[in-house]
Design goal:
It contains one helix and no strands. 57% of the residues lie in helices and 0% in strands. The chain is elongated and about 80 Å long. It is mostly helical. It has a domain of 28 residues.
C-alpha cells in the first residue's frame, strides 16, 4: 500500500508490473571504434562552434547596422534633409 510505484487508484499491488533493473554492463570498444567516436565528437563540437560564431557575427552585424541607421536618421533630421 505504501508502494510509490503503484498506479493511482489501484490498491492491488499485484497488478503492478515493475521494470526489471539490470546492472550497467561494460562495453569494450576497439581502437577503431574509439577513433571513430572521437572524430564524430570533434566534428560535432566544431559544428557547434561554427554555429555559435555565426550567431554572434550576425547579431553583432545587425547591432552595428541598427546603430548606423539610427545615427544616419539623426544626422538627416538635424541637417534638415528630412522632417521629423
Amino acid at each position: 500500500m505504501g508502494n510509490k510505484s503503484t498506479p493511482k487508484g489501484d490498491s492491488d499491488e499485484s497488478a503492478y508490473v515493475a521494470e526489471e533493473r539490470t546492472k550497467p554492463q561494460r562495453i569494450w570498444l576497439t581502437e577503431e571504434q574509439l577513433d571513430l567516436l572521437a572524430e564524430r565528437a570533434a566534428a560535432k563540437a566544431l559544428e557547434n562552434f561554427y554555429l555559435e560564431v555565426g550567431k554572434v557575427t550576425v547579431r553583432s552585424s545587425l547591432y552595428i547596422l541598427g546603430a548606423g541607421l539610427i545615427a544616419l536618421f539623426g544626422w538627416l533630421a538635424l541637417t534638415g534633409k528630412i522632417s521629423v
